[in-house]
Amino acid sequence: MVILGRGMEGRDVAAQATDILKLIETEKEGITLEKLEQIQGIGVAKAGQILAAFELAKRYLIKEDKKIRNTDDILALVADLRDKKQELFITITLTGASSLINKREVFKGTINFSVVHPREIFADALADRAAGIIFVHNHPADDAQPSEADIKLTKRLCEVAKLMGIQVVDHIIITKDSYYSFQADGLLDPNEYESN
To answer: Which of 31, 59, 70, 176 makes a 20 to 30 Å CA pair with 17?
Structure first.
């Protein structure tokens, strides 16, 4: 009723809203401009407003339950990083059941130990009430091997995560044609770094 605003002569807004709700219940994802226009009193402008409200809800309010089960799921989520010319640092927050909560670009530019601050990274994870977190950054030079700065940063982030009770699921370095996984190399436990 709020989206419609008002009804038409001889037909109030509540009746129109009821017809729209019936259409939603029967059509689900199949609602079109044409189907909405078949409802008495709904013209092309109102039908467009209703469809726009649906699209807004789908994009920003209704979160699809996307599970992150393996490295391939992570790589699919960050495929856009492969062609970037600038280094980007992304965080992916997860529920305890490994469902995606959010994917965020946290830093842009040269990623190194002194630039990436745990407080910025974990502030969002805490706000999300995340149980797990994945770090991803790209190497535009196309060498997926971690630098000394990448290794130091990962150690530092793992230490902070452990204190906060958030599991670091992986840190992946992605290039145009390959990737490197800290998890696959067993380098997500801060104790693994004691010899470095």
So the answer is: 59
**What pLDDT is recorded for position 1?**
80
Residue 176 token pair = 């145009």
What three-state secondary structure class fits 62? Answer: coil
pTM of the model: 0.66
Domain range list for the chain: 13-61, 71-193
Q: Are 4 and 53 within 8 A, CB to CB?
A: no
Collapsing DSSP states into helix, strand and coil, what is residue 18? helix
Domain at 71-193, CATH class = alpha beta
Q: Which residues pair with 91 in a beta bridge?
A: 104, 135
Dihedrals phi, psi of 70, to nearest 5 degrees: -160, 180
User: For position 92, what pLDDT does the model report?
Assistant: 96
Strands of the sheet containing 167-174, edge to edge, are: 100-108, 88-94, 132-138, 167-174, 179-181
